[in-house]
Amino acid sequence: QVQLVESGGGLVQAGGSLRLSCAASGSIFGISAMGWYRQAPGKQRELVATITSGGSTNYAGSVKGRFTISRDNAKNTVYLQMNSLKSEDTAVYFCNANIRSYGDLGYSTYWGQGTQVTVSS
Predict the structure, then answer these.
(1) Smallest Cα–Cα separation from 46: which of 33, 56, 58, 29?
(2) What percent of the chain has pLDDT over 90?
(3) Sheet holding 77-82: strands in order across?
(4) C-alpha angle 18-79-16 in degrees, rounded to nearest 5
(5) What is the DSSP letter of 9?
(6) How far is residue 52's CA from residue 61's CA, in Å, rounded to a whole number?
(7) Strand runs (DSSP E) across the chain, as ranges?
(8) Residue 69 confidence (pLDDT)
(9) What is the pLDDT of residues 104-115, one digit of tens each?
(10) CA-wise closest residue to 29 among 76, 96, 78, 95
């Protein structure tokens, strides 16, 4: 019954910006870590950024200084602000969250459906 819904993907030119959002919904008791991953054609899924419930962040080296992850705990939402986009950022972006629902005894990992980000050069 818990799900993640993403929005904000699209087509932009190199140097442009996009802001991705991912909102968790359902009977949520609590959310610990949240993050963003991406998968480019022919490549495996890789971590982009993570953020803990307390706001500690971690970034892949390829996006440091360009991307910013944030969250709004009251809205159960995680964001990814992407600036200075490059063609190599083109990928399907997935949000991820560790969530405990009222029906669970512990936390489970959930994934969003993925949103396409295409950066043209």
Answers:
(1) 58
(2) 96
(3) 3-7, 18-25, 77-82, 67-72
(4) 15
(5) -
(6) 18
(7) 3-7, 10-13, 18-25, 28-39, 46-51, 57-59, 67-72, 77-82, 91-101, 108-111, 115-120
(8) 98
(9) 889 999 999 999
(10) 76
